Amino acid sequence: MVAMTDRLVTALVPPVQARATTSAPPPTPTNPPPLATLVRRDTLQYGMGRIDASGRVSDKSLLRALGWRPGQRLGVTAVEQAVVVFPDPAGVFAVSHTHYVVLPAPVRRRCGFRPGDRVLLAADPDHRVLVVHPTVALDRMLIAYHTSLAGGKER
Known about the structure:
28% of the residues lie in helices and 25% in strands. By secondary structure, the protein is an alpha+beta fold. The chain has one domain (27-149): 3-Layer(aba) Sandwich (Chemotaxis protein chec). Residues 14-36 are annotated as: Disordered.
């Protein structure tokens, strides 16, 4: 006797020989590239944004540089205190028709982002990745840079 679930699975999964044998283009990766590969690039583009109460942030020029249009499915993940947003065909979030990217609440909480926070946006068009940094990261980078300009002595 065949169970009802067996019939449903059989109806939804085509037999192996019925599947197409033509080679399809490789799918878009569902994981972001390692952040270290982004650091060595000289093609990064920057912007500033503000996180609204719904977790939305935007910089239209950066989204254009990334080639992201409304409806583009996105993956979102936290890496330390930064958020990495990348194309993901199976992504739960998408670029809105008003060109916003949504940072989900669990990711915002993990990174310490609150509504109204200003953030540094770093776009890598070569990898089609957007990294959202808290302004404290910008502070750290500038302090280190300014310290190096002063001969390595913090004043």
